[in-house]
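Subgroup meeting minutes
Present: P.N., E.W., G.H.
Scribe: E.W.

1. P.N. recapped why we're keeping a running log of single-chain structure predictions: easier to compare across weeks, and new members can see raw inputs and outputs side by side.
2. G.H. added today's entry (343 aa).
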Amino acid sequence: MKKILFASSALAAVAFAGSAQASEKIQLEVGGYMEQWAGFSDQDNTPSGGRNNAFQSDTEVHFSGKTTLDNGIEVGAKIELEGETSGDQIDEQYLFVNGGFGRIEMGKNDSAADSMALQAPSVGPVGVNDGDLSNWVDAYLIDTIRSSGDQNRVSYFTPSFGGFRAGASYADDSQRNGSNSYNGTDGGGDSIVSGALAFDHDFNGVALGLSATGEHSEDGYWYGLGSTVGFGNFTVGGSYGHTEDDYGLNATNQDLDAFDLGVSYAMDAATVSLGYGYEEVDNSGDISTVDLGMAYTLGAGVTWKSSVYWFDQEADSTNNSATSGISGDNDGYGVVTGLRLDF
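Output recorded in log:
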């Protein structure tokens, strides 16, 4: 009898274990993108090493997966692997939890301010705002969203309430971000608090988007405003950003003021955009740039993109610092074209 009871208990235990593990583990899917560009530029001042490259490329392989728990909460992860890099091989890696309470992210990724900020529409490979201009010419890079980038942080995003949504992030000072070392006791970096408030709503065919974002570290802060309006096939928008001179991520240690304006028009498989960007670096100089972009969908996941751009950079006559943001006068133009593959 004991043997029968033991055998029955063993079978019940096996059946329970099989039921408990009936749901499979998260299966990672492979995605990502590849960009290959060719272009030329004509500028007054070439870099000391000679002309800029005629070719540029950017590739990332993404691994992502998610599952829904019995209580309806969604849990997942994303890992972004750089195709070519001189620094970290992993771009972003984080887990997320979604539910009626909102969304929580934890790992190495962008801040709430970065992910929720709006700026002018742009479809070309160069752009005017935190784009690839400095890859093709010797010019200062305009950026209205001067965030802390990928950091080890925790972020929370609220659900949408009548079109309004808020987000907040915190990154500690461990210096783990962008460094091969980790000191969890007395980190030498800056703790970074990030916040964002966004509004997104459709008013009888007119889509309005608004954003107010910012970050604060132990040394200073930056903040920005953005807006987009979509109607018919048109989208217009712009953004403004200010960075204090003592913000820890501002390598130039100067006040930065930047803005961009742009418009895009979509027609079937093609979209064109025209954007203007400007940034002034306190006691250093300023730069303005224009980008005419085009994107044409050739097929599923295959897009042909092109940019024609102009720029004008002027250094302050009183600026003699080699470490300043605007290093010298320069102006010129260029053309870039190529393919983006999304998989």
